[in-house]
Amino acid sequence: MHSSDAVREGLVALLPRLRRLARALAGQVADADDLVQVVLERALARSAQWRPDATLDKWVFAIARNAWRDELRARGRAQHLFAAEEAGEAVADGAATLPAQQLELTQALSALPPDHREVVALVLVEGLSYDEAAVLLEVPVGTITSRLARARAALQAHLGNDA
């Protein structure tokens, strides 16, 4: 099978994970959808660069990380979170606790510095090991550990969970 065909097939299987990662990085649904689109375009355009002996998910996640950093640099400012459009649909609904909690978590994640949000997305959301995240982010494992610890502390403080 040609590498572009393998990449195309692999991307289809990776879409749910890629979308989760993009939402964790971007915070906003629209930005995440745009990021997924950019990643898919880049991966397909550069499919010849993927080595079949490497795992496709890590290659695609690296593309996503780099694309998101490019976007943040292009904006010239940190990402700000505004309430998602769908969050307003249940404002008067007393049973809207779960969406409200999801919005609060999304806001807490968005408040993290981008390097901490990346580690949370890769380790806690996508389940990469500390070693895998360190390789992908090109930093020592100790950096992953400290960023994750600071991110967890910030999330707990933001969410009011001091336990």
UniProtKB/TrEMBL annotation:
The RNA polymerase sigma factor 70 region 4 type domain is annotated at: 103-155
Report the Pfam families cross-referenced here: PhyR_sigma2, Sigma70_r4_2
Q: Name the InterPro entries on file.
A: PhyR_sigma2, RNA_pol_sigma-70-like, RNA_pol_sigma-70_dom, RNA_pol_sigma70_r4_t2, RNA_pol_sigma_r2, RNA_pol_sigma_r3/r4-like, WH-like_DNA-bd_sf
Keyword Cell cycle among record annotations: no
Keyword hit for Transcription regulation = yes
Q: Which residues form the PhyR sigma2 domain?
A: 13-63
Q: Which Gene3D superfamilies match?
A: 1.10.1740.10, Winged helix-like DNA-binding domain superfamily/Winged helix DNA-binding domain
The record's keywords, sorted A to Z, are: Sigma factor, Transcription, Transcription regulation
What family does the database annotate? Belongs to the sigma-70 factor family. ECF subfamily.
Name recorded for this polypeptide: RNA polymerase sigma factor
What is the protein's species of origin?
Answer: Dyella agri
